[in-house]
Amino acid sequence: MITLDCHDLESHIRTHRKSVFLKLLDESLDFVFIKDTDSRFLYSNRAHSKHLHRTEDQLIGKNDLELYPEEYANAFYADETRLFGDHLPMVKVELTRHQSGQKFYTLTIKQLVASPQGQVLGLMGISRKVSASNREELLAVREDLIEMVKNDLGDQVTPSQLNSLRASFEALSVS
Prior knowledge:
The chain has about 180 residues and is α+β, with helices and mostly antiparallel strands. Helices cover about 40% and strands about 25% of the residues. The protein has a single domain (about 1-130), classed as PAS domain (Beta-Lactamase, 2-Layer Sandwich). It is built from 8 helices and 6 strands, in the order E-H-H-E-E-H-H-H-E-E-E-H-H-H. Strands 1, 2, 3, 4, 5 and 6 form a 6-stranded mixed sheet that branches. The longest helix has 17 residues, at about 70-85. The radius of gyration is 16 Å and the shape is globular.
């Protein structure tokens, strides 16, 4: 869980838009986004905005149903609903689609953002494109990606989450 000393995530992001932290996130090649508790975008870094062929201003206030095909949007929303319910970081390999129609894999981590008092304010997600063009290539890099998650999340990731991540690899296929 990410803790921010605030009570209104949207105002906090707007106020700190020029902060070094958000400027650094803008430079990441990973897709980085922050959403409110209704899964509406409050922040989208340049890579994520470019992936969606929109400016950040065009994304703010929208949800995945307004940006992705229904099958993807529903899966993203289900994961976020679970995250808001059980408060455990979501770690998953996902098949997603570029606006051009090209499908690709991402390793996605979503964590809650909360106030110091524990009030859930929203979530932060990071999706990293995986260099695999088919299921076989994806399975070949599976253990490397799992090790990366262990290193990134440390003791925040549970054995059951790692097992779930392993299972998400098996469930994927390229259409």
